[in-house]
Amino acid sequence: MSNNSQIRTVRTRFAPSPTGYLHLGGARTALYSWAFARHHQGQFILRIEDTDVERSTPEAVQAIMDGMHWLNLDYDEGPFFQMQRMDRYKSMISKLLEQGDAYLCYCSTEELNQMREQQREKGLRIRYDGTWRPEPGKTLPAVPAGVNPVVRFKNPQTGAVQWDDLVKGPISINNEELDDLIIARADGTPTYNFCVVVDDWEMEITHVIRGDDHINNTPRQINILRALGGAQPVYGHIPMILGPDGEKLSKRHGAVSVIQYHEMGFLPEAMINYLARLGWSHGDDEIFSRAQLVEWFDSTSLSKSAAQFDPEKLAWVNAHYMKQAPRVLLASETQQRLAAIGLDTEQGPDLNAVLDVVVERASTLVQLRDEAALFYKEPALNVDELKTMADDAVLAGLTDFLAGLDSVEWTVEGLSGLVKSTIKTHNLKMPKLAMPLRLMLTGITQTPSIDKVMVLMGQSTVKARIANGLRELQS
Question: Are 240 and 295 contained in the same domain?
Answer without folding.
Answer: yes
